[in-house]
Amino acid sequence: MQRYFIDENCIQDNYIMIDDYNHKHMQRVMRYHNGDQVVCILPSGKTYIYEIIDIVIGKLQQKEELNEAHELDVFVTLVYGLPKNDKFELVLQKATELGVHRIVPFLSKRSIIKTDAKTFTKKTERYQRILKEASEQSYRQVIPELMPLMTINDLSLYLSDINLVAYEESSKQGEHAHFAQALLSTYQSITIIVGPEGGFDESEIAQMEKLDIVPCSLGKRILRSETAPLYMLSVIGYTRELMK
Ligand code: SAH
User: Which of 117, 141, 137, 118 is nearest to 129 (CA)?
Assistant: First the structure.
């Protein structure tokens, strides 16, 4: 059944007056009629079946609640050294499918892309749409939050119980234990940090180590900047959901 994230201001008691974007999707893409049913995810994360009672004005009536649990049981923040735009969009979509909760883009010393906070903000609407659609498609109950572009100096704002930076030099030096070890501890939140195409500058790693962020390897091969966060999220998902 098609899923829609609903904004707070669309909800009226047991009814929803659907927003324009979702309304168009229901009419033009799905070609729904009165009586058809959809799944709506409310801002609280609760999910319900709603029936379309007036497709022309976009009015839906609440039916039954669904007891869904599709979220990872730990809060995951991805801090990501901005790669080229199309790669960033790919990571937004795939990281959402893999369960990320918050994405914090930052411009690192070796970021190839030239941008600034203002230019980044202009693209935010498009990025939000990618996050929303990926969340609907992957049965998420919350849409990951995209933070404004930051610099490495703001990193302390986004730390968690566990904090790891994927560092290519750790891999080259043969350190392959830190990531797996960290995931064995008890934690409620985790921050993973990944560099752009050019990797991390040593001074950036030194700055992170001062914040007790642990450099770790992702195995024996060097992954592309867009592969690394997806590998890390897959491993986190595996340990939290499949390994029990
Ligand atoms: N150009 C660099 C590689 C950058 S890879 C070089 O040739 O050395 C981009 C980012 O992905 C890195 O900064 C790191 O965060 C992550 N990454 C990729 N492969 C990794 C690995 N094997 N171990 C740890 N981090 C890795």
Answer: 137
